[in-house]
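Example record used in the benchmark description.
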Amino acid sequence: MTIVPIILCGGSGTRLWPLSRKAYPKQFMPLAGEKTMIQETILRLPDLECAPPIMVSNEEHRFLVAQQLEDIGTKAEIVLEPEGRNTAPAIAAGALLALKKDKEAILLAMPSDHFISDVSSFHGAIETAIQAAGDGTLVTFGITPDHPATSYGYIEKGAPLEKEKKIFQVKQFREKPDQKTAMEFIGAGGFYWNSGIFLFTARHYLEELGKHQPEILKAVKEAVSKAKRDLDFLRLDEASFKTSPSQSIDYGVMEKTDKAAVVPVSMGWSDVGSWSVLLDLGEADRDGNVVTGEAVIMETRNSYIRSDKKLVGTLGIEDLIIVNMEDALLVAHRDKVQDIKGLVDMMKGQNRAEIDIHPKVYRPWGNYQTIDFGPRFQVKNIEVKPGARLSLQMHYHRAEHWVVVEGTAKVTRGEEVFLLEENQSTYIPIGTKHRLENPGKVPLHIIEIQSGAYLEEDDIVRLDDVYGRSSETPEKK
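Model output (structure tokens):
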């Protein structure tokens, strides 16, 4: 029996706004170590002797996932959901693909954005569960609680499945409790945080899904059977997948099946679901502060302060979360950070772009960041990876000036093709087809100055693109 990791990459991480946003959520960031969350998730797997993972991602993040894998030298199947339908359909797609290679495949389904400090205990819990999973049990992992948390769902254990009493029937899944109920859970014993990590065979998961959510199974089967290969990605059929109900594995399967079991484990786990968690995970000074980036603090206690560029100064504060980004600033009491989603919803009602768009926008060829903008002008810092190139394109409403800051640029402008070195520049008139490439072995950095009546990203007509994007694709450049 082969363990096939199914890694779910589609979360938006809005509870860590303004750092985590829809276009660049927390799983792609190094929040609790040197590697990103998604990379840390993958790097926990080698000692388990797993098959290459199946990454289930959305369309928008596909190149980010591919880059994260490339950076750590990992091969994987990247499956693209045409639209988010929650975890039950996503895992079903992974299960169907795993079955094509191994009829006895055991799936280890998990989010890509969780923190686990004790990896050996994580592996031990999987070893405890693997025989039961092979026999048809749908196993989840319950985290032994160390405080009455109100931000997690709970699992109440039932009778043991075997003599060693390391794996138990699930008596009941419980919703996120209020403080009083959480304290009652801790006092009673036998309650565990729901980690959202699962182990079961692909075959048995699909059997239970078909029993309790037949519409999901039908839609996903059709979407997988009609899936198409696109570069390094496998695209699920859009029309079929969109007919699937949106349902989590917890509600859709685990709470309904009579084959659910839980393995209790203490493994230093967190879903990194709030800024207060990063305060707990970070290396604090003697006054309990965790400081990242540019900050000078004085008479400050028990606070998390993060600034990516601008200097933050604090004086006479405590118990605050301060996150200073290029385009947004969050100041919140540490006891209120669980309510940030409500703040994001309020901004959504005001059509604020800051909830979706990150200051640095990532593309398959590199990234760009807006430095300044105003009426009829915009200035961007563009980085192109070695060997990468942008699409051949044109604009109806803007001209562009390019200045090479570092590296060598290969420029297509109309029928001309030429090289630019550091401190050299060129001008792209309105309506002229053009392309920017990096033929070198180091990153290419340029400053782009746009001028014109309309400067939005949808003023792009793609004429050719090595990444298979069309002019209708939401991600431009």
